[in-house]
Structures are given as structure tokens and as C-alpha cells.
Amino acid sequence: MRITIIGSGNVATHLSAALKNAGHRIVQVYSRNMHNAALLAYHVGAEAIDSLQEITGDTDLFIVAIKDDAIAEFVPHLSSFNKLIVHTSGAVELQQLLDFISNAGVFYPLQTFSKTKEVNFREVPLCIEGADESIAKMLEHLARDISNNVYRVNSAQRKVLHLAAVFACNFTNHLYSVGEQLLSGSGMSFDMLRPLIAETADKIKEHRPADVQTGPAVRNDDLTMQAHLQMLKKQPDLQEIYTRLSQDIIKNHNTRHGDK
Amino acid sequence: MRITIIGSGNVATHLSAALKNAGHRIVQVYSRNMHNAALLAYHVGAEAIDSLQEITGDTDLFIVAIKDDAIAEFVPHLSSFNKLIVHTSGAVELQQLLDFISNAGVFYPLQTFSKTKEVNFREVPLCIEGADESIAKMLEHLARDISNNVYRVNSAQRKVLHLAAVFACNFTNHLYSVGEQLLSGSGMSFDMLRPLIAETADKIKEHRPADVQTGPAVRNDDLTMQAHLQMLKKQPDLQEIYTRLSQDIIKNHNTRHGDK
């Protein structure tokens, strides 16, 4: 397929590299920032452009990989070509494209990308939605060219997915940060926690998280929890987070085990 | 060294295997449960015992790897041998051993062990404390036989380490579980989140967590946060956790960047 990439951020970068490696042709890379456009275009053998007038309709698919709130503004610049347009956002409804064009879909990679860190794209979950079944089928086919994990996800589900990712990833990363703060406050290095964090993430590759929950809350070890809250007495925000999460662990555990 | 293992749980199992592999001799494995004692003793070539009378003083070190609240009760059974005694707990102070014997220390592996999952012990952080410098040195030496990550940690620091581990690991695992619940409530599989969780943990191997924080809170994306809270309106506990963690992320970010 001939593919045009709108954007030059992390998603645009990783996605276009994966598509090119799978044998597709990246025709143009558009970015308001010519330097970024040129850098990405060079890597994927495409033409770099930074003006809307240079966008050509000589393509099969526009992938709009730009900030969420810029998508609805940008699409009118593409709709006159009457080619398939997809966005790559977890939070934006398909409807935002359908307001301008019926030939539309979503191609959402559920992963956290950094430009400096390689990702094995074959393991990235790709969440597909199409304005109709033939579009969905086509996007699914394209997705399978670059990933082993392709899912049909509607706009309502995609919002839930995004919310779940906030809990399981953004909040998780913040808890790593809390761990680091606590250690540095007592003259210890975050290196001490790194192997434990790696193992905690590794465990759920094969298990459901609730089945491998450990710690004072799931044991209902009240003495330890009280001691921990006491240690946090000068950090009321962390005390509150500790209490809320512990209560939720206890509640979940009791629900699973049929207690009240 | 000749080493006696008290206990047959996860820590006893992984620790004694690592010590034996490093060339030390496990003399006896004591457990109240003869089946467990025999299983572990078989693996490490030791004698299995389940009665206190059979414990011999013909050893250099007792490693007491049993539940926290059983340690103080057990130590009097060993103190008459006048050999070095260590416990392996993150939460128990060295003082609990010193009440019975001066020849005491702590040998705390900071890792989450499962009997069915292999762990590369060379990467497990071992936290050492000794009643005096010569004991600490000796334990440090022993620790280096089995791990590349050996730390001197006093009882106050060890408590902080344990608390930090609750945040970075126990609470993190619960957030994975929340993610799973949200997905299953919308007919989606936890498999969709697994690669993102793996990548989130992988990122902090090379970075400080605060440097790679992503998501709506750190971007101060109020519209998305409001939409997420709206989606959670029937789950007030999760709403509260969402709010508290987001506020803490915003506060941390502002502190780092010098805002009020």
C-alpha cells in the first residue's frame, strides 16, 4: 500500500518504520516542523513536506498521528482527496473523522513509545475500528502485516482501554517514583528496587494479577499496615494513597473469596 | 560454610539453592512440616528435620527464614548453640535477635519469590545488617557469593525499603488488576495490556521513573481526566484512587519544574 503519514512524533515514527519494513511504501511524511519531517522521511524513504499544499492524493491511506485535539482540525485538509483516513488515538472517537469523511477508521497502537527506545512492533497490540466492515477488514489485514496482536475495538471500548492503561501504566510508573522518593529520603538508591519491579511485571506475563497479589493488604496484616501509615505521617498524600489502595486490595480479595 | 536453614517457604527454598550452588553446605533443613522439609532438603543435599531436638549445633550459621511474627519465638531454640543467627525479614528489627543472642545479623533478599518461578539470584538485592562490623563483613562476603547486588542496610532503612516495595510492587500489581477489571467489564482481554505493562517496567531499567512519566496527569490534560472520572462514576473507590494518584503526579511534576 501507498501510505501518507501525518505527524512525526513517537507513534508516527515507530508505525511508519514498521509499515515500511513490512513492504509498504511511505509516500509522504507531513509535519509542521520540516526538520522532524525530514528526519523521519529519510528513515522510511519518503518525501518530507511541511506545507498543506504539497500533500498529494496519490496515496491509498492517510495515517493521522498527531495530538488528539489537533485531529478534528486537520482532517478537512485531507477529506477532498477522498482516500481512507485513520487516526491513531486512544481517546478520540471515530465519529470525529466521520463528521468529515465516510471513508475512515482507527489504527491505535496500545504502547508507550520513546524515540530512543526500540520496540518490537510485532508484540504491540493494534486496535482497529472501521466506518464499515470492509474498511475494518482492510485495516485488520494491514495491522497483521506488522503485529501479531490485532484487535477489533470500538470507540467506547477504546476509551476504556485508555483508562485501563492510565491505571496499569501511568499510575504504576508514578508508584515506582514514590518508591524512589522513599528510598532517597533514607539514603538508598532506586537500584535496590529495580529487580523487584522487573519481577513484579514479569509475573503477570503468565498469571492474572489478582492471583499473584502479595503484601500486607492481601494478608490483612494490620500491624504492618499501621506501622507503614505511621512512617508516612509527614506525607499525608502518600498516607491517603496507601490507605485507598490497601482498602481496594482487601475489598477485591474478599470479593474473590466470597466474604462480605 | 556449613549452613542450617530454618523454614521451607519461598525464601528458604531460593536462598538455600543459591547458597548450595555457590559451594556452601546446607547441613539441615528444619520445618514443622516434614514433607516440605524433605522436599527442600532433597534438593540441597541436606538432612530434613521436623523436631527441635534434632537441630544440631554442628553448623556455622542459622538462617531463620520463617514468618515475621514467629521469629522471636523461634530464636531461643537456637541461641544455646552460640552460633551466628540471621533472619531474612524486611520488617523485623535486628533487635529482636539481639534480645536473645549477640551473634546476630540480617540477610534480607529484596525480591518476590514464587516456588514455581526461577529467579536469577545474582540479580537479587541482598540487604545485610550485622550486630557488629565483623559479622556484617562476614555476611557481606557470603552475600557476594550468591548476588551481585549486596547492600548494607540498617533496621530503620530496611523498614523504608519494605514500605517502598509495597508502593512499587504490591500496589503496582493491584493497579494491573484494576486494569484487568476495567477491560473485562467491556469485554476485552487483559492480554491487550500485557505488552504495555512490560514496556512500562522495562523503561525504568535505564531511566528514573519521574523522567519517563506519561499520561494525562503529567500533561495536565484536564479534559481527559474529567472524562476518565466520569467513566468511573459507578466505581467511587477507583475514582478516588484516580484523583489521588493524578494529584500526586501533578504535584511532583510541578515540584520538579519549580512551579507552585
- Ranges of chain A where pLDDT stays below 50 over 5 or more residues in a row are none
Q: What is the radius of gyration of chain A?
A: 23 Å
Task: Kindly give the count of domains of chain A.
Answer: 2
What's the CATH topology name of the largest domain in chain A? Rossmann fold
Which CATH class of the largest domain in chain A?
Alpha Beta
Q: Give a short account of the largest sheet of chain A.
A: 8 strands, mixed
Mean pLDDT of chain A: 95
Q: Assembly state here?
A: homodimer
Keywords:
homodimer; Rossmann fold; N-(1-d-carboxylethyl)-l-norvaline Dehydrogenase, domain 2
Overview of this protein structure:
Two copies of one chain form a homodimer. The first copy, chain A, has 260 residues and is α/β, with parallel strands linked by helices. The first copy, chain A, has two domains: 2-153, NAD(P)-binding Rossmann-like Domain (Rossmann fold, 3-Layer(aba) Sandwich); 158-256, N-(1-d-carboxylethyl)-l-norvaline Dehydrogenase, domain 2. Chain A contains ten helices and eight strands. Chain A has an eight-stranded mixed beta sheet with strand order 3-2-1-4-5-6-7-8, with helices on one face. In chain A, helix 5 (95-98) links the parallel strand 5 and strand 6. Chain A is elongated, with a radius of gyration of 23 Å. At the A-B interface, helix 7, helix 8, helix 9 and helix 10 of A face helix 7, helix 8, helix 9 and helix 10 of B. Chains A, B: Residues 2-86 form the Pyrroline-5-carboxylate reductase catalytic N-terminal domain. Chains A, B: This is DUF2520 domain-containing protein.
